[in-house]
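Q: Hi! First time doing this. I have a protein sequence and I read that you can turn it into a structure. Is that right? Here it is:
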Amino acid sequence: MRLWRGEVSVRSSRRLEVIDVTREVRRLVRESGISEGLASAWVPHTTAALTVNEPDPDLWEDILETLARLVPVEGDYRHNAKYSRLPGEQNAHAHILSSMIRPGITLPVSSGDLDLGTWQAVLLVELDGPRKRRVKVTVLGE
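A: Yes, that's right. Below is the predicted 3D structure, encoded as structure tokens:
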């Protein structure tokens, strides 16, 4: 059993945004040299998340609009009141959404590559951008 770690950086350009990071995660899995196992992808940020879904920008906008309706940016959040003296700290919505979506995913690795379905992509969900984000990938296997 071997363990390998890598990381990619991504820059978001909007407050709410979906960014396809499949190519970058796939590259790291291939670099690991592990042919069979699991890949864990993780964002070390409390206002971003990872998910797996279709690589369809129209769907991404539907997801973002739904998230904004469920947990609007403007709201009577205690976190925002606590940090209201700090510029840019009006982001309780992003913390809540990150907890709902999750900061990490686990993916199967087969034949040295991600074993994704036909319509699956690894997506970073930016919830408080624009920001520079990191995606950490750990591959475990043989």
